[in-house]
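Hello forum,

I keep getting stuck at the same step: I have a sequence, I want structure tokens, and every attempt I make locally crashes halfway through. Rather than fight my setup again tonight, could one of you with a working pipeline run this one for me? It's a single chain of 230 residues.
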Amino acid sequence: MPLTSSVERARAGPRSWTHKRETQTHAEFANAKGMEIKYVIDTHIQADHLSGGRSLSEKTGAQYCLQTSADVGFAFTSLNDGQELDLGNVTVKVLHTPGHTPESICLIVTDKTRGPEPWFLLTGDTLFVGAGGRPDLPGNAHESAAQLYDSLREKILNLPETLEIYPAHFSGSVCGAGISGKPMSTLAFEKRWNPILKLDRSGFVEKLTSEIPPKPATMESILRASQGRD
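Reply #2:
Ran it on my machine without issues. Output:
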């Protein structure tokens, strides 16, 4: 996700991932708005598509960032839980939310020209509209599902309910089961209508581990490429 010193990109439709083929579009958008892309952040290591994060970083000179525990074969700027990135009128706070993958993060964005309260949350593959991220890709589905439950309860559900929610995917993605076709939401809406958020820990783990979509056929090769191990 390219972060700039303005929220214009968010108004055009914020999203928490950049496909490899879209890097030129992001660079051109920033240039047209007179903005500098300072950080390019992947919310997690991708296993179903090739992120354009590193390409966009190289194209623009921005720092490429991952959560500090990311297991990759290339250099990156580390992000830690609770860290804040200062972009002038905009601040971005990092939340480490393991579960979908060990290094998964969510990003709280605040526009200080609107007020002191955070505006929206980029949830990556941690929380979708109507669903949660699949927990099996790291290898231990039950352990990862329990981590995801804790991440949602401890890091997200206690945030202001007025937060707008922008996940990385909507219906059609294999990154979770039962994802809505609605591309965005609010935290209040998800707390009211998302069925997985009504479950206790054991029910949550059972639900997420019993409804796992098939793994992408090319997952292993995509994951190696995403980790820089090809």
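The longest helix spans residues 141-156. If your local run keeps crashing, start a new thread with the error log.
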